[in-house]
Design brief:
With 84 residues, the chain is of the alpha+beta class. It has one domain (14-83). Helix content is 36%, strand content 29%. It contains 3 helices and 4 strands. It has helices at residues 27-35, 40-50, 52-61, and strands at residues 14-17, 22-26, 64-69, 72-80. A 4-stranded antiparallel sheet has the order 1-2-4-3. A hairpin with a 4-residue loop joins strand 1 (14-17) and strand 2 (22-26). Helix 1 (27-35) packs across helix 2 and helix 2 crosses helix 3. The relative contact order is 0.20.
């Protein structure tokens, strides 16, 4: 029997889109959790280099949104839960 723990003690930054009335999640945070990568930005970059179709459509399903962070607002790639 498998035991699954869903992101226990891991934080995923999110932002509410008033125009679309839905939550968006920072892709980098999700990739870090799912892959245990120490450098999720590089992981995403390599993933896009290996998959031309993914890279071509990236901006269509990973919009850049302004996300409040501890260091101030930053533009980050985000996706809604339907994209995962």
């Amino acid at each position: 029997m498998a035991h699954i723990k869903l992101f226990e003690s891991n934080q995923i930054r999110s932002i509410w889109s008033e125009t679309e009335q839905k939550w968006y999640f920072v892709v980098e945070d999700v990739v870090a959790i799912l892959t245990d990568s120490k450098d999720p930005k590089q992981y995403i970059k390599r993933m896009r280099l290996r998959d031309a179709e993914l890279s071509k459509g990236w901006v269509q399903f990973v919009p850049t949104l302004t996300v409040p962070t501890a260091g101030g607002n930053q533009k980050m790639g985000c996706a809604d839960y339907g994209d995962f």
